[in-house]
Specification:
By secondary structure, this protein is α+β, with helices and mostly antiparallel strands. The protein contains three helices and nine strands. The strands form two sheets. Strands 4-3-2-1-7-6-5 form a seven-stranded antiparallel β-sheet, with helices on both faces. Strands 8-9 form a two-stranded antiparallel sheet.
Amino acid sequence: MEANVWVVLGVFLALLIVAAIATNKKKKAQATAMGASSYSSGVVLHGIPHVPAQTGVDVFVANEKLTFKTNALTFDLPFDKVSAATALKTTDLLTKDKSVLARGIVGGVLLGPLGAIVGGMSGIGKKQLKGAFLVINYQQSNSDETDVIILNLYYMPNAKSIADDITKRLVNKKMINGTIEL
């Protein structure tokens, strides 16, 4: 009977591997169809309208825009609205004993929404927000306000690759006669 358990576990593991390979091929095909140079999957932490935190998301970097796809919605963010992108590693802020609310406010002032998320969590024991974060600053449509999208891509090389691809496109877009306009 113990051998049967191992067989069942082996079959289950094989099915998981096949499903992962099929999902990766599907995303690669989507990226190719969109003309995307890079893509990754993760979860939304903040900043995509009408998408709750911890919702799964795929991000694609194409020639003129970023595309964010969830199960039900697709969002395009043109590069002319993007001002910066960066990848951040696991973060831990404000280790002194203060209230959760005060930590959230201070973190929000220092690092925007990611600081507020981590600052609020740091007041509850020694918890850390873990992951590989992609942080994108952009200007909202029909507004002069700057907003932030924060995704947890879980794997730092993916987050860094996406951030580097975005940054390279931003630099190329803002370069005029070899000079970058600030």
